[in-house]
Write a structure and sequence with these properties.
Radius of gyration of chain B: 26 Å
Strand content of chain A: 15-25%
CATH architecture of chain A: 3-Layer(aba) Sandwich
Order of helices and strands of chain A: HEEEHEHEHEEH
Protein name (chain B): Heme lyase CcmF/NrfE family subunit
Number of helices of chain B: 19
Shape of chain B: flat
Radius of gyration of chain A: 19 Å
Helix content of chain A: 25-40%
Structural class of chain B: alpha+beta
Distance between the termini of chain A: 63 Å
Function (chain B): Required for the biogenesis of c-type cytochromes. Possible subunit of a heme lyase.
Oligomer: heterodimer
Number of helices of chain A: 5
Membrane topology (chain B): Multi-pass membrane protein
InterPro entries (chain B): CcmF_C, Cyt_c_assembly, Cyt_c_biogenesis, Cyt_c_biogenesis_CcmF
Main location (chain B): membrane
Largest sheet of chain A: 7 strands, mixed
Helix content of chain B: 55-70%
Chain lengths: ~180, ~650
Amino acid sequence: MIKYLVPIGLFAALVGFLYFGLGRDKQTLPSPLIGKPAPIFELTRLDDPSKTFSNREFAGKPYVLNVWGTWCVGCRQEHGALLEIARRGEVPIVGLNWNDDRQQALSWLQQLGDPYVVSAFDGEGRVAIDWGVYGAPETFLIGADGKVLKKHIAPITVQIWEQEFVPLLAQARAVSP
Amino acid sequence: MAAELGHFALILAFCLSLPQAFFGLAGAHWRRPHWIALANRAVAGHWVFTLFSFACLAYVFNQNDFSVLYVAQNSNSELPTFYRFAAVWGAHEGSLLLWLLVQATWSLAVVAFSGNMPQQMTSRVLGVLGLISAGFALFILMTSNPFLRLWPAAPDGRDLNPLLQDPALTIHPPMLYTGYVGFSVPFAFAVAAMLEGKLDSLWARWVRPWATVAWMFLTIGIALGSWWAYYELGWGGWWFWDPVENASFMPWLIGTALIHSLAATEKRGLFKSWTLLLSITAFSLSLLGTFLVRSGVIESVHAFASDPGRGLFILSFLGICVGAALGLYAWRAPLFRSNAGFAPVSRETFLLLNNVLLVAATALILIGTTYPMFMDAFGLDKVSVGPPYFEAMFLVPMLPLVFLLAPGMHAAWKKASFESTKKILGILLIVAVVLGIAIPVVAYGWNGVMTCVGLIAAFWVAGAALVDPISRWRKGHSLPASIIGMSVAHFGLAVFIVGATTVESYKEETDLSLKPGQSAQHAGFEFTMTKIEDVAGPNYEAVQSEVVITRDGEQVAVVHPQKRVYRVQKNAMTEAGIDAHWHRDLFVAMGEPLGEGAWSLRLQYKPMVRFIWLGAAIMALGGIIAACDRRYRKRVTANEGVPDAAGAKTA
């Protein structure tokens, strides 16, 4: 009567996988974008709705894309680290202001300091969807060839920057466009 | 105070689910009428305390008691009263309490409508339902207590997620849960039958209305969710193959298979162990959906705040419940042999194909939903499985299913000859082919074979669904509610297919920028933005534009799409401006301000999109009608033969 044992066997396998899924470390969950060209976007600038910004402007140059919003507690937490990374000037940081209020976002940058060379305003969250963002803050490293090299979910720290991003910088710059 | 009372009532509700489980199962096993009576009382007590607990939570929301953590997280003093009530199930903890209340209500309904069932069967069913209630109550108390205090109290709340501040979405979760939890009743019946070692046509007759009603609620719940996504997310899509949507769709497909398999079990005593397996699977998939949505195993746009501790609890619960049921199945199912035979061409064959195809569709969706996780488990690349996979794979089992439906409805039990129905089905098919090609071509233009195939299938099913009740009615034969219900539900499916096929084939979308005073042509209509103004709602500010839609110089509609920003959570929400018409929607959603008064707008023309939800509503209506059939209410004693069920005597 093996056939009557099939359902419970399949079910046990499923539960096993689900159990594995629970223990899985979300931080190291690879993004499907890694190694692929970063999605191109064109959005209005945060500081000036009449001007647009596109990441095409960074073609041939490495940059970091940081997804943030004033509503996000983790973003406030990582802000100091971002300012420090920006001060070192190893690579420019582009902000993607996600699902936010323009005025609030601007006053946040005024109060806490602005680590971004430019911030794009993604009020609808469409670009964030293209980039596979599922929660702010998220930080991407994009190489000179326009490919995504690294994605970090959750607040970034200077330590994480040094250990996980800096070793990739040479590669990010080296790749000829 | 109310929060503590609610918490206490919840503990009592948990305590009462234990005697419901114990006396229900033990009373039936050792045949003790007193114990069975106690189980019935425990059901009532459990329900009263769960309701009281739920009422307490609603009360603290109404009182804006921000010293309760859950209220502070999900409400706000500016939130309108109606949404303050709906906020009770606006997040994880409260929605579980709603789940428990629905679960308790189903148990109560089993007590109320069990007049035609032997006491022992009812008692076992209540026992199993008691175990499930106990599990959920424990889950709430241990990991997700909505009554926890926040000290010091928050001055104001963080507000209900603006996405949920919408009428359709406030009734969507209760409907969905009623469906999900409703499948616990067939599950309990299946376990009870396996414990008893007896499964006959009467059993199938008892289960059928429960399965149908649960299926009906799930249909409504899914349709409401789809309708909400259509107008609230601002994208104008009606189904996204999101893991959370799939989680509700899989039990629906299995539930549909179960309803059909139960028909064969009742009428012919066939597919017994298969019906048992489907009963178990439908509820397992409901639990699995809950697990996927709440454990953080799968990322989704509208997954609940995830917590691995909760995930582990649900997974253990799922493992125990379903593992025990399937273990019981492995042990007992060999008892339930069917010895009734049937010819290769018969209604039984068609029902079997229906089941195989529905199960295949469910398996494809389950694979697509969990695939990224499996790949990760094997250390392979993360692959994203998107709508293209689901759309392509889903059609493979669905097309034959729909085309088999028309002959299946007209096939006789045991051996079908189609002698009497061959002609009418043939005529209907020819009419369907002519209409299915002519209508889209004349109305919208040629758009490939698949459009016509979809419409031909829909018209054939619609015709075949109506032929039988009409001919019975004209001949003056009796027309039982179950036949009307079946025809109505199948007709609803046809309506749905017309909507889905047409909108997917002929929708027209465009993104453009407009300033007040400018206009644009789209899909034969002229859209003119006349003004942009600021408006304020009770708890949001909005930019509203007025768009006048004209056709050939005549005004068709004026719509007012809005871009809202909710004051507390600050997320921007799109309220689409929709001009709804029976055969098309014109959909205008505001995008981004582009400076100098210009806004990006998304214009969409959606032909027949209303038929999608109309079809679902008709299917649900068919479900209610079928569940109201008189024979489900007839009192039959267990040893009485059933005239139309040959299989009953063999069981």
